[in-house]
Design a protein that fits this description.
By secondary structure, this protein is of the alpha+beta class. The protein is built from 24 helices and 13 strands. The N terminus is likely disordered.
Amino acid sequence: MYVLSGVFDLSVFTKMKKNKISLGLKLFFTVTIYAILVILLNILSYGKAIDFDFWRDDWFTIWAGKFQSSLIWESYRNRFLAPYFNWVFINVIGSDSYLWQFAGLISKIIASFLIGSLGYVLFSSVSVGLFASLIFSSSPYSMESFSWARFNGFILILSLISFAFYVVSINGRTKKRLFFFIFSNVFASLLFLFDLWRGIALLFLIPAFEFIVAISKPKPVYKFRESLLRIFIFVCLQFFVIKEVIVATSGKSSAVGKLDTFSIIAKALSEDYYTRFFITIGNIIRSPFFPVNEEGGLSAGDNTSLILGFAFVLFLVAISLFFLIKKSLTIGKIALLLWWLVLFYLPNWLYEPMISLGVTHRYVSIGNIGLVLVIGFLLSRMQGNYKLGILSVFIVFYLLHANKIITTEEKFRSRYVVRAMWGDILKTVPVYSKDVVLSVSGDHALRGYVFDWSGVYPYVYFRSIRSFEEFPVFANKETMVRLMCDTNVDVTDWLYGGTKKSGKIYNPEKIYAWRIDDLGVFRNVTEETRIYVVKNADCLWKSFDGKFAYFYLPSVDSENKYSALFVKLSEKEKIQGSLTFTFVNSKNEIVRKITYSISDISARNEIIKFPNEKDFGELKVVARFCKINLCN
């Protein structure tokens, strides 16, 4: 293809004698060396992410794609084609995270080649394309877009192809310009059909590029009125596509809520939210030499980032004004790429203004490309071997940055870590259990990353649970106590977000709990959690003759080895005598008797644990109180 072939530089062979090697062989070696470098750098910077499991919204997407496909469409507001794309991937690949991440790696490699192509056609320089491609290959930029199950990396690829085709359509003969102009519009339309808001900046950048070329020196080969016609056609066509996407998806927002554009903008500009915009820009600018710490693409940043971001925007305004004065085409292209960074991030910042981001987050994935191309251009303008030396420094620092991020994230995203914990839960909770209450406690970060963000969706996916009514409840111990006695308890609403009323009474036998300690060890605490709940849920206790209350809990421990009998005195005065509990099975056969003295009870709550027997079946408890010396 014309666009892709431009990144290959044959100049390294100019010193070779023409009679020793053919042009075709030169091209083959050039393509091979370049391809190997791009693939190798992507593996070095991203390869370890192959081990990443699903997280955040991934598990919902995977579950819905398999069991409730209609929810895929409802959760993709203003993304008309994305649900179809994800539905195919989910039903072909399923829950094999290795294949998902391998697809992400391939997509990042493709994006690296396309960035090289765009650099070449934009600046008519092989060096710009080559440098930009190698820098992106080694960087952590856009990592989340390729490792996320919603596959935002495909959006990035569409934006690159559309813009590159439009650039090519500026030059050359009329037929060639028309061909690439048509396909640029096609890919832009696909971009908006897949993800309207992540690609919306293209609607401004392509007309801006046309304007820059039209007023710059030297003048383009066609007249200014053709520029106006091209802009008019592009804008009208894409506005039509955008309108149709909004209309087609306007009612599909049950899982994410409706978006009010004016309220979003007002919120973004209120309080200190606008500072997050500058901090995020600063976080990107300072990478790779002074990177900020980030986890999951989120980073608090600091005052340095804030100052860098603000200075960048001021410089952007200055270089734009300088272009309008000088009308230099090169300066105009640099200004355009700097605006690329700002404009592609702007809609995402308006949607989520209260967070600041690092370089890997999906919200800045397309915007990062503008900076990569500018770096590639600046390196290409350096003299002699300096450019190769500085390029090597960039690559080394980017690789270090990328691997630092992956090493940090694999502690809570590794498939081994995630599947081991969920595997323990699935092994403990009996298959086909209903009305299950789950709890994962602890202050370790694993709890948030693996459980709070993913919710119950890994559990319901592997248990093939389709109905929200059969979803387990995630709760802490205090909420569990209320769930045993009250139908009006607030629990997480996994469909609409927020909370909903529990609507039913739960059984302490269906409680399963784990705790992640400070060292990240995942420990089963089902037994102690059930005991805590039973002790504190007064509605569970049965009063007997006003003397005492009791509660029988079969299978108190997670391995079903022990049952327990809870007893507490009801009278303030000390009484003497004995309690006899008779366990009767469904055939009214006595299978066990327990008798003990009241005087043996030293605490308010007494717990008597005894081994389970397989032939107990469903038991009922008969209690008998006998005063001292009056027992038969």
